[in-house]
Amino acid sequence: MIKCMFEDSKKTVFLRHVVVDMLVLNKNNQILLVKRAPRLTRGNKYTVPGGYLNRDENLVEGALREFKEETGFDGRILHLFMINDNPNRRKEDRQNVCFVFIAEVISGEKKLNDEVTEIKWFDLENIPGEDAFAFDHREMIELYFEYLKKPFELPILGFNKKI
Fold first, then answer.
1. Which of 23, 80, 97, 152 has an alpha carbon 20 to 30 Å from 7's alpha carbon atom?
2. Rounded-to-integer distance, Cα 60 and Cα 47, Å
3. Which residue from 112, 128, 31 is spatially nearest to 73, judged by alpha carbons?
4. Residues 76, 28: Cα–Cα separation, whole Å
5. With contact defined as beta carbons under 8 Å apart, do 139 and 90 qualify?
6. Which residues contact 95 (CB under 8 A, 6 or more apart)?
7. E strands along the chain, which residues?
8. pLDDT single digits (tens) 94-109
9. pLDDT at site 73
10. What residue numbers bound the domain in which 138 lies?
11. Does some domain include residue 82?
12. Is the residue at 4 inside a domain?
């Protein structure tokens, strides 16, 4: 949570973070996952590439920046998949509001960094189990698989199923 004091209030308030995540498939129908560094919250766990939106950047800029930082790849946003504003998301401690994009790699080479210890493509039927994931990203991926089998209207707003 972000602790703030507004100009017109003497009361401290807590705000929610904005995060941007990327669901990225390759031409072999594999999804890209990254493994978080041990020093991070829920370290050694898989996630989709993504992170916090910086001040003075829009959602697309933030998503593409995070994607490049975490993978070394340049990407292209194809669609907004969902906005998850559920304040009670599983495995979340900061009540993040998450904008999830469907994207593709357009260039670059896989490159590890201080936040990511592994970058790996997984076949859709062989993604790691729930315990191997940080946050609620596996459930988000499962919803994406449902969309790939039988497309529905996007974006999903306020997803509260299990996520």
1. 97
2. 19
3. 112
4. 17
5. yes
6. 1, 16, 17, 87, 89
7. 2-5, 12-15, 18-24, 30-36, 46-47, 50-52, 73-84, 97-108, 116-123, 156-157
8. 678 899 999 999 999 9
9. 98
10. 17-157
11. yes
12. no
Res 10 pLDDT > 80: no
Distance CA 68, CA 50 (A): 9
The string of pLDDT tens digits covering residues 39-72 is 988 889 999 999 999 989 999 999 999 999 999 9
Number of folded domains that form the chain = 1
Handedness of CA 122, 128, 132, 136 (dihedral sign): positive
User: Does residue 2 fall inside a structural domain?
Assistant: no
Q: Is the pTM of this model over 0.85?
A: yes
The Cα 88–Cα 5 span in angstroms is 24
Residue % of the chain over a pLDDT of 70: 85
Structure tokens, 133: 């994931």
Q: Are 101 and 145 in contact (CB under 8 A)?
A: no
The SS3 of residue 66 is helix
Q: What is the CATH number of the domain that holds 77?
A: 3.90.79.10
**Distance between CA 31 and CA 153 in Å, rounded?**
21
Which tokens go with 130? 């729930």
Kindly give, in sequence order, each residue whose CB lies less than 8 Å from that of residue 77, ignoring residues fewer than 6 positions away. Answer: 60, 63, 64, 101, 102, 103
